[in-house]
Amino acid sequence: MDLNEFKKSIEKDAPPSGLGLALEALWYAGKGDWDTAHERAQEQEDKDGSWVHAHLHRQEGDADNAAYWYRRAGRPVAKVPVSEEWLNIVEALLAPR
Q1: What is the rounded CA–CA span in Å between residue 9 and residue 12?
Q2: Tens digit of pLDDT for each residue in 84-97?
Q3: Nearest to 82 by CA among 30, 47, 41, 28
Q4: pTM summary value
Q5: How many C-beta atoms surround the C-beta of residue 38 within 10 A?
């Protein structure tokens, strides 16, 4: 799946199968469902989940909580617009590892 396919999938009622919890969180965030996005991010207790968790708290406007999660993710606090950060994280998590 690439970024364009991911973005198109947001028009559907459910996320595509096979996404990890961090990508599911971003999918729900893309639909405007912050609560479900936050639940999914919390369930993935690794650096990717922490990165998405940080993004969600930044989106929410809770800079202190976001900074904590960026540290847990081993990432600097994002300075780009939230919408651009969402795209960057989706692309990074979709990239082959």
Answers
A1: 6
A2: 999 999 999 999 87
A3: 30
A4: 0.95
A5: 19
